[in-house]
Amino acid sequence: MVANVTSYRLLFYVIIYVITETEGVWVGRKCCEYSTTDECRSACLQARSKADITSHCRSNEKGLDACIFKQLSRQQCCGRRSNASSLCRHQCDDAFRAESGPTTDDVAQLASRCGVTMGSCLRNFTIELRKNSNESMHCCDRATKPGCKASCRHILRTETSDQVMADKLDVACGPVMPHEPMWKCFMHDSKPLDGGTGGV
Q: Is 60 in a helix, a strand, or coil?
């Protein structure tokens, strides 16, 4: 991930009014704990929409942005506007409860059971996650263990789940060592990779 505007931000303004204006409660409030400054956190807790915090939060609030993107996507894919049955909406909600959100298996199963609209929405979410992971590709170049660089790049290109990425990187490159360049880069770029987006 880079410090400039991420793909998450490009989507915020596309869906923010469709969702938050009609349903009244800003789902991003539960993400405020991931802000890195007191000013941003305070603005987040008082906000009614993402627009209310843009002037208070830095452009590299990766953990916060990822969490809000996930919550907005959950509301868009699983909410009443999806026109899916209550059972499908409940199963969709459950899939988003995982730390990294719906897996590719979840997407396939929900698309099969609940229709193309929900499946397409979930698929778009996983595509954006993969794009975001690709923005962290530069961290792989800092790997010092033989074979780790190539494995790291392959993992980031093919996986969408933060947990699966972390597990596979642990096997390919060794356990998380905050002082090592590659892991230090990941932890600086994104809180989620070192255990942080909880409920994202």
A: coil
Domain containing residue 141: 137-194
145 domain residue, yes or no: yes
Looking at the domain assignment, is residue 119 inside a domain? no
pLDDT tens, 140-154?
A: 999 988 899 999 988
pLDDT digits (tens, 9 = 90+) for 91-139: 999 999 887 788 878 888 998 999 888 988 988 887 777 666 667 788 8
Q: Token pair for residue 46?
A: 């008082």
> What letter does residue 36 receive in the DSSP assignment?
S
Task: Work out how many domains the chain is built from and give that number.
Answer: 1
Widest CA span in the chain:
52
| DSSP annotation string for 5-67 | --HHHHHHHHHHIIIIIHH-S-GGGGGGGG-SSHHHHHHHHH-SSGGGTTTTS-TT-HHHHHH
